[in-house]
Amino acid sequence: MGVVVAIDAGTTGVRAVAVDEGGQPVGWSYREFPQHFPRPGWVEHDPLEIWGAVQATLGELSAGLDQPVAAIGITDQRETVVVWDRRSGRPLAPAIVWQDRRTAARCDQLFDQGELAAVRARTGLVLDPYFSATKLEWLLNEGGVPRGSHLAFGTVDSWVLWNLTGGAVHATDPSNASRTLLFDINSLEWSEELCDLFGIPPACLPEVRPSSGRFGTTVAGAGLPSGVPVSGIAGDQQAALFGQACFTPGMTKNTYGTGSFVLMNVGPVCPPPQEGLLTTVAWVLGDGTTAYALEGSIFATGAAIQWLRDGLGVISEASEVGPLAASVPDNQGVYLVPAFTGLGSPWWDPYARGTVVGLTRGTGRAHLARAVVEAMAYQTRAVVEAMSRGSGRQVEALRADGGASVMDLLLQIQADQLQVPVDRPRVAETTALGAALLAGLAEGVWTSLDEMARGWALDARFEPRVSPAAANGRYASWQRAVDRARSWAAPEGPGDLRAP
Fold first, then answer.
1. How many CA atoms lie within 13 A of 486 on its CB side?
2. Cα 427 → chain centroid
3. Residue 264 covered by a domain
4. Residue 279: which H helix or E strand, with range?
5. H helices then E strands: how many in the chain?
6. Could you tell me the pTM of the whole model?
7. What letter does residue 206 receive in the DSSP assignment?
């Protein structure tokens, strides 16, 4: 039948991956695109640079393929907001990235108005600038974006789909829609009440279709031949959950990317809001099968490695951080809280800021690198503990993926902190794999979840090596550092009022 191509439109770049019928990657291409920081706390992308990276990666990938493309799947950075003109297809403003904090004060205002409970009940989310609605509201009220029938809004998946289909399809899937603060995850429809709350015209929103099913077909100029079906869409973290074959309730994965995102499959029934966590739609299949997930969103993990490289010059390549961190036996009392854009789960504190504690004259670059790696594991532990409390399920094993999961040191520290095994799959690009599987399922490349689960293969398992007491002592020291990072940028008050 040919290969399935996944477009992974991430936060810092676009990856196109071809997957064969055995679920194995057989080709890939990658392009970074620029990050724009016009003011402190603001993070923007140029939508045309994202689309240019999609075209470039698809063109390079297709040039090396010796098989036809059976289907395309799209996965994306979720909450990032893109607005464009339906007539011209041109963006009307820079994309506001999920990391952007410019609407923190608006979220405070909504909390003070008593809106949190209603928002939580409908969306499973919290009042935090992380999500799309306050970003879109800002663009309409302060960003100069004109209202009207020609306005189109979408997360990055919708923008890519629009361009792949030559403007024929303006749609998204429930996993992405559930990250906007505008979507009722119980009825699986856009909420009129939430659109009214944020002043969003419903006509600008994309149609919501199942995550696995044909959305449209490609046109010439997209980097692939015309007529290829686009048949799968999922937000990056839900796609990774699918790619990790976490099809059974209780199965849990963590993706170590720019941020880290822990998701637990909790089955077909939407659970009530859980303290410190988000409830999200994991996927809706073409036959109506729906899965929900609890999510813990960690804003900065790989971003801390980028900070070491680009901000401090401690390393010249991201791949250096693991060996450098492993060159010392411990962190020598140095702890990092990478709250560069606030803290996500389970604190939800947009006013927290990055903090390093425990520096001495003996501190070197290796200790700082180790503190960065350890912070990834500590943040994940905080989320997993909140998830176990909220769901009533103990995580029996964690499936790990994402760029940083290649570090054996990180996964060993993670196993030590969680006191459960951490499993790394042979296919590390599970986000792209999940998008490909959703698309291939719709087009008959794969026939069932069971077939796809059998294709999951273990690369390495990391078992705990330290005692619970030793792990708890290190974690307690890091929690003290978190206390110092919290509310740092708050003008007044505790600064954690949006916590669920």
1. 18
2. 18
3. no
4. strand 278-284
5. 15, 23
6. 0.87
7. P
